[in-house]
TrEMBL record:
Highest taxon of source: Bacteria
Record EC number: 7.2.4.2
Topological type in the membrane: Multi-pass membrane protein
GO cellular component: plasma membrane
Record's protein name: oxaloacetate decarboxylase (Na(+) extruding)
One family name in Pfam for this protein: OAD_beta
Keywords: Cell membrane, Lyase, Membrane, Translocase, Transmembrane, Transmembrane helix
GO molecular function, one term: lyase activity
Role of this protein: Catalyzes the decarboxylation of oxaloacetate coupled to Na(+) translocation.
Cited InterPro entries: OadB_MmdB
Quaternary assembly: Heterotrimer of an alpha, a beta and a gamma subunit.
Source organism (scientific name): Salmonella enterica I
Top-level EC class: translocase
């Protein structure tokens, strides 16, 4: 029985929230519309797949390194971050201080979290590299435009 309990907790289903469950259902609906009904597959397939990946419970795929640090609640590491931000060493106070901090300070805290061994999730890296820099929208629109303009000759 213990192994079954460990399996269920390891899968993350025990941590599934109501919002995540709803978003997983919406993502599956979008994937079904794109694949089975062929309704705007160029638009709905990536949206559904991204929604599915970002709402997997306890996967941390969309978390930055600093968000991962705050999710693990390590008292020593929280104390280091809190000392840099001049706030109380609890997650709520750190989040409030980060919301009010300058972007340069937020970047320093992110780098500190990376130095402590935390890594950003795959979707957070994709956002930073592709979307945050503005490259992905250009490539996507060029690709969709090329697919619609240059059909079979």
């Amino acid at each position: 029985m213990e192994s079954l309990n460990a399996l269920l907790q390891g899968m993350g289903l025990m941590h599934l929230g109501a919002g995540q469950a709803i978003m997983l259902l919406v993502s599956l609906l979008l994937l079904w519309l794109a694949i089975a009904k062929k309704f705007e597959p160029l638009l709905l397939l990536p949206i559904g797949f991204g929604g599915l990946l970002s709402n997997i419970p306890e996967a941390g795929m969309a978390l930055t390194a600093l968000e991962s640090l705050l999710a693990h609640h390590d008292a020593g590491q929280l104390a280091v971050i809190a000392a840099k931000l001049n706030c109380a060493p609890d997650v709520h106070a750190i989040k409030e201080a980060l919301a009010l901090a300058l972007p340069s300070v937020q970047g320093q805290m992110e780098n500190l979290a990376v130095d402590m061994g935390y890594t950003p999730g795959v979707l957070a890296l994709f956002y930073k590299v592709a979307i945050g820099s503005g490259v992905a929208p250009l490539v996507i629109f060029m690709g969709v435009g090329a697919m619609t303009d240059f059909g079979p000759l």
